[in-house]
Design goal:
The chain has about 290 residues and is an alpha+beta fold. It has 11 helices and 7 strands. Helix 3 packs parallel to helix 8. Bound molecules: iron/sulfur cluster and FE2/S2 (inorganic) cluster (FES).
Length: about 290
C-alpha cells in the first residue's frame, strides 16, 4: 500500500504542468555587437527550478549557453542571476513561484559580464579581501603557534552569527543602487563582513579595518535603500550590518567605543566525560 502511494506521488511529481518561455540574454564575450536575447521552450514539473530549466536548454536545445553553478542547494553562491528583474539564485527559485509563463534571464547587474549569464565576480572578492575578513589578533605568537581554541560564549556568537551566513553570491551587490552609480563603493557584502569580524569577541581588528570601512567609498556612502537585504537569500540583512558599522564609527568618534579584551584561549576541560551514546571522533588519517 505504502509503495503504491509513493509510486503515485512520484508519477505526479514527474507530470509536466506547463511549458514556459525562457528569454535568455546572450553575450559571447567578444564585444557589444554580439548581444542578443534567445527564446527557449522549457517544460515545467512540480519543483522545477530555473537552474533545472537551464540544464534542459543546455542538454536539449543549445549546448553553448553559459552560466555558473555548483551546489544546486543555495550554499555555494555561484548561480546568482537577474530573474524576472530581481537578483536571485537560479537553484533556489522554482519556476512556479515566479507566477509567469515567461522567465527573463540576465546576468547580475553591477558586474561586468564574462559570457551569457556569467558575471565577473572578481571585483566582489577583491573588495571583500580589502576589509580583512578574518580574525585579527595582537598576540601573534598564539596565532602563529596556536595552543588551543579562543573562548566564545553563545551570547558572543549570536552577536555576529547572522552575518556569518553570507555565501558571497553577490546578489546584494547587484541590487545595490549606490554601486550602480559608484563602482568604487565597497558595497553591502564586504561591509557586512567587516561588521561580522568587528563584532566577533575573538577579533581585535577594528583599527585595521576602519580606514577602508569608513573611507569616502565605505559605509557612509550607503543611503539605506535596503535593496541588498531584500535580495539576500540567506537572511544576512547586510543593510543592518552597515548601519551597525556607522554606529561603531559614531561611538568611536566620541571616544566611547568599548575596547573589549579579546577572547582568551579556552582552557580544555580535563574532567569532561563523553555522554553515553555519543560516538568518538573518527581517527585522524593525516599526520
Ligand atoms: S550578504 Fe546575502 S546577498 Fe550578499 S553576498 Fe552575502 S549571502 Fe549573498
Ligand atoms: S548552485 Fe550553489 S547556490 Fe545555486
Amino acid at each position: 500500500m505504502i509503495e503504491a502511494v509513493s509510486a503515485k506521488q512520484t508519477e505526479r511529481a514527474e507530470e509536466i504542468i506547463k511549458t514556459v518561455k525562457f528569454k535568455v540574454f546572450r553575450y559571447d564575450g567578444k564585444g557589444k555587437k554580439k548581444l542578443r536575447v534567445d527564446s527557449f521552450e522549457v517544460p515545467v514539473k512540480k519543483g522545477t527550478t530555473v537552474l533545472d530549466g537551464l540544464h534542459h536548454i543546455k542538454e536539449n536545445l543549445d549546448s553553448t549557453l553559459a552560466w555558473r553553478y555548483s551546489c544546486r542547494m543555495a550554499v555555494c553562491g555561484s548561480c546568482g542571476m537577474f530573474i524576472n528583474s530581481f537578483p536571485r539564485l537560479a537553484c533556489n527559485t522554482q519556476i512556479t513561484e515566479l507566477e509567469s509563463d515567461v522567465v527573463h534571464l540576465k546576468p547580475l547587474p553591477n558586474f561586468d559580464i564574462i559570457k551569457d549569464l556569467v558575471p565577473d565576480l572578481s571585483v566582489l572578492f577583491e573588495k571583500h579581501r580589502q576589509v580583512k575578513p578574518y580574525t585579527l589578533r595582537q598576540d601573534l605568537a598564539e596565532i602563529e603557534n596556536p595552543t588551543g581554541e579562543f573562548f566564545q560564549s553563545v551570547d558572543e556568537l549570536e552577536r555576529y552569527l547572522q552575518f556569518a551566513y553570507c555565501i558571497k553570491c553577490g546578489l546584494c551587490m547587484a541590487a545595490c543602487p549606490t554601486i550602480a552609480t559608484d563602482r568604487r563603493y565597497l558595497g553591502p557584502q564586504p561591509l557586512a563582513q567587516a561588521y561580522r569580524y568587528n563584532a566577533d569577541s575573538r577579533d581585535e581588528g577594528y583599527d585595521d579595518r576602519k580606514d577602508i570601512v569608513f573611507s569616502p567609498h565605505g559605509a557612509f556612502r550607503c543611503h539605506f535603500a535596503g535593496a541588498c537585504s531584500e535580495a539576500c537569500p540567506k537572511g544576512v540583512d547586510p543593510a543592518f550590518g552597515i548601519q551597525l558599522l556607522k554606529r561603531q564609527a559614531f561611538v568611536g568618534a566620541l571616544g566611547l567605543l568599548r575596547r573589549r579584551k579579546a577572547a582568551p584561549v579556552a582552557t580544555p576541560v580535563s574532567s569532561a566525560k563523553r555522554l553515553e551514546g555519543v560516538p568518538e571522533a573518527p581517527k585522524k588519517t593525516v599526520s
